[in-house]
Every structure is written in structure tokens, then in C-alpha cells.
Amino acid sequence: MAATTDKNTPDKSDDPIFIHGSTLRHVIVMSFTSSIGLMAIFAVDLIDMLFISMLGEEALAAAAGYASALLFFTNSINIGLSIAAGALVARALGRHEKQEALEYATSVAMVAFGVGLIVPLILLWNLRAVLALFGAEGEVADLAAGYLMIILPSMSVIGVAMTGMAVLRAHGDAKWAMYSTLVGGLVNAVLDPIFIFGLGLDLQGAAMASVVSRFAFLAAALWPAIRRHNGFDQPGAALLMRDAAAVSKIAVPAVLTNVATPVGSAILTREMAKYGTEAVAGMAVIGRLTPVAFSVVLALSGAIGPIIAQNFGAGLHDRVRSTFLDGLRFIAGYVLLAMLILFVLRAPIADMFGATGLTRDLIYLFCGPLALVTFFNGAMFVANASFNNLGHPVYSTWLNWGKNTIGTWPFVVGGAALWGAQGALIGQAAGATLFSLIAVALALRVVGDPALAKPTQDPFIGHRRMHVMSWRGRW
Questions:
Q1: What does the pLDDT look like over 337-361, one tens digit per residue?
Q2: SS3 letters for the chain?
Q3: Are 217 and 161 in contact (CB under 8 A)?
Q4: Where are the domains of the chain?
Q5: C-alpha distances in angstroms, 237 versus 107, 108, 114?
Q6: How far does CA 230 lie from the centroid of its chain?
Q7: What distance in Å separates the CA atoms of residue 368 and residue 362, rounded to the nearest whole number?
Q8: How much is the mean pLDDT over the chain?
Q9: Closest by alpha carbon to 80, among 259, 262, 219?
Q10: For the packed helices 174-193 and 23-54, what is the interaxial angle rounded to 10 degrees?
């Protein structure tokens, strides 16, 4: 008698990639490929500032700085939406619900597109007032406004592009997710000198190059997401109405989590300014060294999320916990190696920036024991990824705001009172370590107890197609 196959039994050949094999290997591959894309973004930002500074006008560089501060908040919205896309799509894939995965991807893309139209309209309508809040005035405000009027309308483009990249990661397609950011960065790097110097467009040329690069990023992300994974469904009001609550439940806390970071940076900057330009210069150098030396750590949050989500969706709670622990082991090894390299090269690094006096002292401090604190920051990234993908994104919000407020100000002020500018950095590190330990302890409870992750189960499971057909009928 021929064996029969239950049509409800998933075909193992269609299993999502992360529910099989070594979780540590998945963590390493996703982290390194994500970090390459992240490095491309940092490199493009650096090139932008380099070309603008070559124009020899301080007002242009200042305007770019104010514009970047405002764009950080629009990017935070897109990052939050991409986190929602990654979590929802990967969990659905883990449950072998391919249709639900592509429906969720489409819903987030529509939200990203809509938000990317509405937010720029609001900002452009109040652009002068918003720039004044950042301290921009006079010619600098005029230049920043001209830059933003070009680049802000493309927020919907970068929002959908980041959603497409999140979908690629949710499918485990680390290579093509990396390619999408590299394409965008390469286009920007090529067009910058052409538009800024060749066409003589100055700061507006940099904005135009960024807009074109966003469209290149969009194409490079959507093409493989659609052609390789059939990652999106037909857009429509039915999907948007049905999934808006599920998307916002993850995206809103994720946005608020990202917005907390510049608050902590502002607190530290204000305290360091009391010690003069050498202290501020030292902090600026550290700010440039960190994303270069620890890009893998910075990329870990977005890289490990899909691995956790797929395994949770598949009900493989042991693999969820092992993924979390492997993430901690990975960053421990990476940070130790990076710190040793920084320590050996601390003198050449300081010489490269022409650092002397207090600036050099701060660089030496960072390239020594202080670099080890990056492990605790990375551990918090892993914890936040766990919270976002296991149904507790609000935990990430509260912990990140706690870290960047009560975990920063009293520690920075106390450290500065004891050891001056070096103490301010030590104090920030101490506060970050404390909140990272709290985050890891809480995350261990969540990943170790499947019952605590039950809220992540989507309310529409088992009824999604019925609901969407009902909505389509109404529309």
C-alpha cells in the first residue's frame, strides 16, 4: 500500500533556513553580512561630510549637521517599521505560513510608504520652526532647509527599501540584503562628486545624490525579495486595515527605542563640553572609531532578530534560547579581539587624528579597557532583538530610555566629578553596563520560558484569510 502524505504536514524542503543547522553559524553569517552593509552606510555618510567640507564653507558643514539630526528621526521611523517587518515575516515563515509572511510584508511596505508621505509633509510645512528647535538660524538654516526640501520627500522610498531588506533577512537571504545596501552606498559615492563638484550643486547636489541612491537601494532590495522569494502580496486596503495593529505594536516601541539614543549622546556631549575642545574632539574621534571597529556588534540586533523569530514561529524554543546565548558568545569573542587590535594600534590611531593632550588620553582610554564595554552594549542589542521578536518590544523601549537617561546623567556627572573628562566616559560605560545586565537578565527569562512569549502569537492566526476576504468584500 502506497504511503499517504498529510497535506497539512509542511514539506521539510520548504523549511525556513534558520530552523535547521547551527544557530551560532547563523548568527555569525547574518552579523558579518549585515555589518558590511552597515559599514557602507557609515562610509557614505563620511564621504558626504568629506566632500562638503572640501567646499571650504563652514556654513555648509553646519547645515549638513543640522539636517542629519532631523533625518535621524525620520530614519528611526523607518528602522522601527523594518523591525516590525522582520519580526512578523520571520515568525510567519517559522510557522510555515508563507501566505501570511508575504501579506505581512506587504502591509508593512504600505505603512512605510504612507508614513513616508505624511511625515515629510508635516515636517516641510513646519521646517523653519523644526530647524530652530535644533538651533539652526540665518544662512545655516536656509542651507539646511534647501537640503531637506530635496531629501525629505524620498522618505517613502527609503522606508519601502528598508522593508524589502528586512524581508530578505527574514528569509535568511543575508547575501542579497547586504547587496542592497552596498548598491545604494556605491551609487551615492559615485554621484556625490559629480553632483557637488562637477555640476556645482554644492549641498543640494549631495541631497540629490542621496535621493538617487535611495531609489537604487529600493530596486536592489525589492528585486530579490520579489523574484527570489515572492516576498510580497497584492497591496490593498484590506491588508492595511487588518494588519495595522500588529505592525504598530512592534514598530511604535521600536521607533521610541531608537529615538532614546541621541538623548544619551546629548547628555554626554554637554558634560564633555565643560572640559574644552580637546575633550569634545576626543569624543568625536571615538564616535568615528566605534562604528568602524564594532560595526559587527552594531549590526547584531537586526541580524539576530530573524533567527529568533523563525525558530519561535516554529515552536523551537530551545533554539530560541541557544540563538540568544550564541549571540552573547559571539560578541564576547569579537569584542575581545577588536579591543586587542585597538590597544596595539592606539598610538597610530591617535597620530592619524593628530591627537594630543586630553584628546589623546581619551582615545587611549577607549582603545583599552573601555572598549570592552562594547560587549555590554552588544548584549543589550541581543536582548532588544529578543524582546522585539518575542512580543515584548516595550521592554526594549523602557530599557533603552532608562539607559540613556537615569543610566547616563548621574553616572556621567558622578564620574566627571571624580576623574574629569575620562570619568565622564567611564561613568557612561558604567551606566550602560548596569542597564545591559538588567536587559540580559530579563531576556533570559523571556527566552527561557515559552509562556512569557505567548503574547507574540498573532491574533489573526487561523482567521487571517477569513478576515482579509471580509475586508476585501467591503472595499
A1: 999 999 998 888 888 777 788 888 8
A2: CCCCCCCCCCCHHHCCHHHCCCHHHHHHHHHHHHHHHHHHHHHHHHHHHHHHHHCCCHHHHHHHHHHHHHHHHHHHHHHHHHHHHHHHHHHHHHCCCHHHHHHHHHHHHHHHHHHHHHHHHHHHHCHHHHHHHCCCCHHHHHHHHHHHHHHHHHHHHHHHHHHHHHHHHHCCCHHHHHHHHHHHHHHHHHHHHHHHHHCCCHHHHHHHHHHHHHHHHHHHHHHHHHHCCCCCCCCCHHHHHHHHHHHHHHHHHHHHHHHHHHHHHHHHHHHHHHHCHHHHHHHHHHHHHHHHHCHHHHHHHHHHHHHHHHHHHCCCHHHHHHHHHHHHHHHHHHHHHHHHHHHHCHHHHHHHCCCCHHHHHHHHHHCCHHHHHHHHHHHHHHHHHHHHHCCCHHHHHHHHHHHHCCCCHHHHHHHHHHHHHHHHHHHHHHHHHHHHHHHHHHHHHHHHCHHHHHHHCCCCCCCHHHHHHHHHHHC
A3: yes
A4: 21-235, 260-468
A5: 9, 12, 12
A6: 24
A7: 10
A8: 82
A9: 259
A10: 10
Q: In this predicted structure, what is the pLDDT of residue 380?
A: 92
CA pair distance 345, 334, nearest whole angstrom: 17
What is the average pLDDT across 371-390?
89
Q: What is the mean pLDDT of residues 150-165?
A: 91
Residues of the chain above pLDDT 90, percent: 22
Q: How far is CA 30 from its chain centroid?
A: 14
Closest to 310 (Cα-Cα) out of 29, 7, 26: 26
Q: Which of 50-54, 226-230, 466-470 has the lowest mean pLDDT?
A: 466-470
Contacts of 160 (CB under 8 A, 6+ apart): 109, 112, 113, 116, 218, 222
What is the value of pTM for the model shown? Answer: 0.79
C-alpha cell at 179: 547587496
